[in-house]
Design a protein that fits this description.
MetI-like fold; globular; 76% helix; mainly alpha
């Protein structure tokens, strides 16, 4: 009886294991299918933009009629002076605000990770409030600040606004890189008579550079395509997103698709370069 009971128990135990491969036949495709749908959803607008930058369309308005393949819009990408000026303003603002926000955000991250001071928890809360707050709230508050101090809205106010909301993103990114930093490397450098600046330049900065670069790329991307905060604080200055928003009412020229494609491809190149750099360091 014990042998029979043992075989019956073994048969009962073997049933679920036999059903598992049958279930995995279709469940193993669920996650890949879900990831594929998400990727298609995210990439489709970009692919449409790239596709219609090659559309042989003479229409001034956006048209989804494919009229043939052409590359004539790329040599004429700067044919519209007002669009070129708006793009130039966006690049100037993004470059200046990225440099300032990266420097300040890196210093804030170093202070939050390494030192104890009054207001440290408040600084954390303020940074995450900056990230989580709606852009319309930030834009309106900055506008009221500039109006209170009597500052005319121009390129300078746009730079100040972009630096304000970029600092938090840079600080959070660099702070994540500093979380696993080995302080003994700095102590070893100081034992070898390296000063504070030499230690930072030769030891600290090369180690945290991937995080700094990632924060800078994020700040640049957020700055160059920002619309809401810029719209509140731009005044008469036109940036690329503001120009495109105004052009929607009368018709978007094909150069907009070309510039968008160029900006996207530039970001892809920078992301790939950052990835290669990280692999070489590891």
């Amino acid at each position: 009886m014990s042998v029979v009971a043992t075989r019956e128990m073994a048969g009962v135990a073997a049933a679920p294991s036999g059903a598992t491969p049958h279930r995995r036949r279709w469940t193993r495709f669920v996650l890949p299918a879900y990831v594929a749908m998400v990727l298609v959803y995210l990439v489709s607008p970009i692919l449409v933009m790239i596709l219609y930058s090659f559309n042989d369309s003479g229409f001034k308005r956006v048209s989804f009629r494919w009229l043939g393949f052409t590359t004539r819009w790329y040599p004429k990408v700067f044919a519209k002076p007002d669009l070129t000026a708006a793009l130039k303003n966006s690049l100037i603002v993004a470059s200046i605000s990225t440099v300032i926000a990266t420097a300040l955000g890196t210093m804030i991250a170093l202070a939050l990770v390494r030192y104890r001071f009054r207001g440290k928890s408040t600084t954390d809360v303020v940074m995450f409030m900056n990230i989580s707050a709606p852009e319309i709230v930030l834009g309106a508050s900055l506008l009221s600040l500039f109006v209170t101090f009597g500052m005319p809205r121009n390129l300078l106010t746009i730079v100040i606004a972009h630096v304000m909301f970029n600092i938090a993103y840079v600080a959070v990114t660099v702070r994540a890189r500093l979380a696993g930093f080995d302080r003994s490397l700095e102590e070893a450098a100081q034992d070898l008579f390296a000063g504070p600046w030499a230690t930072f330049r030769r030891v600290t900065f090369p180690i945290i550079f991937p995080g700094v670069l990632a924060g800078a790329l994020l700040a640049f991307a957020l700055s160059i395509d920002d619309f809401v905060i810029t719209n509140f604080n731009a005044g008469a200055v036109q940036t690329f997103p503001l120009w495109v928003y105004g052009a929607v009412k009368v018709g978007i020229p094909p150069q907009v698709f070309v510039i968008g494609t160029m900006i996207f491809m530039g970001g892809v190149r920078l992301a790939l370069a950052n990835r290669v750099l990280q692999r070489r360091k590891t």
